[in-house]
Automatic annotation (TrEMBL):
<feature type="region of interest" description="Phosphopantothenoylcysteine decarboxylase">
    <location>
        <begin position="1"/>
        <end position="187"/>
    </location>
</feature>
<feature type="binding site">
    <location>
        <begin position="302"/>
        <end position="305"/>
    </location>
    <ligand>
        <name>CTP</name>
    </ligand>
</feature>
<feature type="domain" description="DNA/pantothenate metabolism flavoprotein C-terminal">
    <location>
        <begin position="183"/>
        <end position="397"/>
    </location>
</feature>
<keyword id="KW-0288">FMN</keyword>
<keyword id="KW-0285">Flavoprotein</keyword>
<protein>
    <recommendedName>
        <fullName>Coenzyme A biosynthesis bifunctional protein CoaBC</fullName>
        <ecNumber>4.1.1.36</ecNumber>
        <ecNumber>6.3.2.5</ecNumber>
    </recommendedName>
</protein>
<comment type="similarity">
    <text>In the N-terminal section; belongs to the HFCD (homo-oligomeric flavin containing Cys decarboxylase) superfamily.</text>
</comment>
<feature type="region of interest" description="Phosphopantothenate--cysteine ligase">
    <location>
        <begin position="188"/>
        <end position="402"/>
    </location>
</feature>
<dbReference type="GO" id="GO:0004632">
    <property type="term" value="F:phosphopantothenate--cysteine ligase activity"/>
</dbReference>
<dbReference type="InterPro" id="IPR007085">
    <property type="entry name" value="DNA/pantothenate-metab_flavo_C"/>
</dbReference>
<feature type="binding site">
    <location>
        <position position="341"/>
    </location>
    <ligand>
        <name>CTP</name>
    </ligand>
</feature>
<comment type="pathway">
    <text>Cofactor biosynthesis; coenzyme A biosynthesis; CoA from (R)-pantothenate: step 2/5.</text>
</comment>
<dbReference type="GO" id="GO:0046872">
    <property type="term" value="F:metal ion binding"/>
</dbReference>
<dbReference type="GO" id="GO:0071513">
    <property type="term" value="C:phosphopantothenoylcysteine decarboxylase complex"/>
</dbReference>
<keyword id="KW-0210">Decarboxylase</keyword>
<dbReference type="InterPro" id="IPR035929">
    <property type="entry name" value="CoaB-like_sf"/>
</dbReference>
<dbReference type="GO" id="GO:0004633">
    <property type="term" value="F:phosphopantothenoylcysteine decarboxylase activity"/>
</dbReference>
């Protein structure tokens, strides 16, 4: 969902990073209005932000031209969220004590939208007791969320906390601040991607799963407050921010990682396309083509979801353990075959998705899913996988809380 974002920029060297942040927000579809403090203009020209956002930049409370286009009260009402990045020690102090002596601080007091604050400053300033007290005050203020700065080398050559995080980190925290915390306090374990079953050092059996759905579900669970572990097969995706990613290659490796962590999880969601079979014998060296047989002997891989169902499923008699959610990729009779798989595997819920055609192709950014919970009517969702992930968790949140 596209957001109306007021981006507040204050006067620190990290102000140049706010340009990258504005671009990242716009790239994902958000509408951005920038408000700069007087000192911010010493680091970045307002014209830069105007060119990036294609919108006027707020500079002063009593600017007749700006007020005629969009007044500060109207801007405060327009915002779905106010993102202050970077927030200097001076601005943090003003926010903590309710000052309103410029356009940005006036908007902050007038808005009822959530406020996300990303402090950035010299390490010693950041660690000063007064600054820490002000940040604590802000973090305890309803509607405010403070993002911890990164640790590293700063412009002043000191090494320590105080760097403005990169845009992907800030965007992840922004989304978390705006998401209903339906999974707060829950430990969620997911699998994603394909597995590779080695024939020799150069060849393997696999499938075209991209891992996009599993990674989107991991990111969405984290947004909704969960502590998330993702067991991932080989994929070309960046790890979602704040998610513990454990890389595996084979089905046997994935089985070991999932089964070891499942008992301590509140929800286990098996999204991975796990290979059903593997070569009975895998060579550590590359086999010469002339020495290979035209028939490959296979052996069955462990059925991770079925084993979980036997231990923790609704028919297992278990009184403790995780809620189990399976996934089924089907080419036809998607809902019916999904229900049959849910019963066969012994899970609490199952998400069935159609494969085939442009919309159902492996690696596509959009899909159609059917969420199946017991005998309830299937809930069908279509759209980008990031939006589908949120919809799936909203459908399953009642189970997760139970």
């Amino acid at each position: 969902m596209a957001l109306n974002v007021v981006l507040g920029v204050s006067g620190g060297i990290a102000a140049y990073k706010a340009c990258e942040l504005a671009r990242a927000l716009i790239k994902r579809g958000d509408e951005v209005r920038v408000v700069m403090t007087r000192n911010a203009r010493e680091f970045v020209s307002p014209l830069t932000f105007q060119a990036l956002t294609q919108a006027p930049v707020g500079l002063a409370t009593f600017d007749p031209g700006y007020e005629a286009q969009i007044g500060h009260i109207e801007l405060a009402r327009w915002a779905d969220v106010v993102l202050v990045a970077p927030a200097t020690a001076n601005l943090v102090a003003k926010m903590a004590h309710g000052l309103a002596d410029d356009l940005l601080t006036t908007v902050l007091l007038a808005t009822r939208a959530p406020v996300v604050v990303a402090p950035a400053m010299n390490t010693q300033m950041y660690l000063h007791p007064r600054v820490q007290a002000n940040l604590t005050t802000l973090s305890q203020t309803p509607g405010y969320r403070v993002i911890a700065p990164d640790h590293g080398e700063l412009a002043c050559k000191e090494v320590g906390p105080g760097r403005l995080p990169d845009p992907p980190v800030i965007l992840a925290e922004l989304d978390r601040a705006l998401s209903p915390q339906l999974l707060a306090g829950k430990r969620v374990l997911l699998s994603a991607g394909p597995t590779r079953e080695r024939i020799d050092a150069a060849r393997f059996l696999s499938n075209p799963s991209s891992g996009k759905m599993g990674y989107a579900l991991a990111a969405a669970a984290r947004e909704m407050g969960a502590e998330v572990t993702l067991v991932s097969g080989p994929v070309a995706l960046e790890a979602p921010y704040g998610v513990d990613v454990i890389g595996v290659e084979s089905a046997v490796e994935m089985h070991g990682e999932v089964m070891a962590r499942a008992p301590e999880s509140d929800v286990v969601m098996m999204v991975a396309a796990v290979a059903d079979w593997r070569p009975a014998v895998a060579s550590q060296a590359k086999l010469e083509k002339s020495s290979m047989e035209p028939v490959l002997e296979l052996t069955r891989n462990p059925d991770i979801l079925a084993e979980l169902g036997e231990r923790f499923g609704p028919g297992s008699g278990a009184t403790e353990g995780p809620i189990l959610v399976g996934f089924a990729a089907e080419s036809h009779d998607v809902v019916a075959r999904g229900r049959a798989k849910a019963a066969r595997k012994g899970v609490h819920a199952l998400v069935a998705n159609a494969i085939g055609g442009p919309a159902g192709a492996f690696g596509a950014d959009e899909s159609t899913v059917h969420v199946l919970v017991g005998a309830q009517e299937a809930r069908t969702h279509r759209g980008p996988k990031s939006a589908l992930a949120r919809a799936i968790w909203q459908d399953l949140a009642g189970l997760a809380r139970g």
